[in-house]
């Protein structure tokens, strides 16, 4: 994936450990501290925060990879800019991108595939070859 080099990829695999222990993309995000948890009490509802316990090495690897992807991947940069336009700060926008990339990373690890960039989309006005 864009943003993961040799060293960061190795750190990620060490931080994840046994893939059978994780179980799902949501669990991977929760282990990395990228999935917010409810912080409701009494009359306060809808407040979300980072969990108190999470794998800091996994969060660091996901955050740094997302940060690098903002610079080198146009799709990640567009997502980051969209989150910034929604009013999120720079750190929150990178965390949103890291959470989004967690789903893709989980699917790649589960299926034992490598990253393949999306094929270019053809314009609608081109005639289809038979």
Task: Write up this protein.
This protein is mainly α and 130 residues long. It has helices at residues 6-16, 19-22, 25-32, 56-72, 74-85, 90-111; strands spanning 37-38, 48-49. It has one domain. Helix 3 packs across helix 6, helix 4 crosses helix 5 (74-85) and helix 4 crosses helix 6 (90-111).
Q: Which strand order does the major sheet show? A: 1-2
- What is the terminal-to-terminal distance? 34 Å
Low-confidence stretches: none
Helix fraction, binned, reads: 55-70%
Please report the number of helical segments.
6
Number of strands: 2
Order of helices and strands: HHHEEHHH
The rounded Rg comes to 17 Å
Class of secondary structure makeup: mainly alpha
Strand content: under 5%
Mean residue pLDDT: 82
**Count of separate structural domains:** 1
Features:
130 residues; mainly alpha
